[in-house]
Amino acid sequence: MTSTVHTPEATVCATGTRAVVDDLPWIEDGAKVAPKDARVLSRLFLDRLQVLEEGTHDHQYARNTLIEMNLSLVSFAARRFRNRGSGEMEDVIQVGTIGLIKAIDRFDLSREVEFSSFAIPYIVGEIKRFFRDTTWAVHVPRRLQELRVDLAKSRETLVTERGRAPTVRELAAHLNLTDDEIIEGLVAANGYVAGSIDTPGGDDETGSAPTYADTMGDVDPALDLFEDLHALGPLLQRLDDRERAIIEMRFGQEMTQAEIGRELNVSQMHISRLLTRTLTTLRTGLLDA
């Protein structure tokens, strides 16, 4: 597929002013330029781009045309990531185009390398960064993201060699890491993809199996009581023998204040005052804990 290329003499904008500098051809649609022609024209445009003043119409035209002519490089690089999910390909192309723009801005003709050879690593690097930073369901440190890739490669190699899944120790020896580092990487790898709790569990392909949500228990209301009792234990130990006895009879044996008074040979009113003072002490201790 080719695009119309006009000589400089024919380059006139709708306003009647010249669209580009004299030694650059006018290209209607850079994306339609054949790859072979794009390689030749890119060198011409890159050469002129280095001397054009940034922000001018000429600079903008040269830069935009270079981007359009080399979008095929982005499509080429993006193909290797097509299995990551078709719904993301549009994002991949956009991110890859950012890499292309960086390559255009940083290319130096004096290096005597093809622009395509220079641009592909920028494009691929930008796409890899996109997947590394945005596709994890749970954010984990970058070193663990990279370790996940190394673990996958090592696992594949060891499975081929041994005919079985490798152990943690074998992975550690293969990657020259400790067992703890391998375990940390394996645990972190679980954060790459998140599953819905509404997904049916087990191997039932009919979809009638209980979901993971069905197997999740509710919060036990007794947990709060357990925490309170756990915090109350040391406070009870600070009470004297009579105060602990009154608490035990009132709340352990569920005796009335009158019954406690008869047991201790004191009045009910005195037991009431003792209970109030003791409970206030315990309540204050719990709030300060």
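Second entry:
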Amino acid sequence: MELDHLFNGSALTAVDAKGRLSVPAFIRGVIERRSDAKAVVIGGHEVDPCLTAYDRGYARILYLENERRRLKEEEAGGVPEAHYARARRTFGLTEDVPYDSSGRIILPPMIRRKGQIEDLALFVGVGGTFEIWNPLIAIKSGDEDLRELAAYRLEERGISA
């Protein structure tokens, strides 16, 4: 399966006490070109302390990638526990979150806690998916480019980190 539309760009959005936020237009544009559903699937990132998100159709790509990794691990004599843990993280620990005509969503409490999202959310396009960061965590990341991006987006809002 090829992806004709990729997530590029970044934006900082406010999050209210109930977890409501606006999905940036650059994200919605890709979602709507790749899927008929106005929804995002959000879960914990496999490596970083943030959330990862994508359109509903991207789940098939994730399933195929998990299967490819499972077969490779089996060939190498690996145990199935790693596959099942990955499958749970990829599909069980996610939420399908629809957005309204204005692009607003409500981050489910479990997902919000998993991503440590407070009053701001930093959206970062990473190709086939996008990440949602607490910008104050991103600014402490080991990734220099991410730190610089988070600092810039905070400065745009008049917030010093």
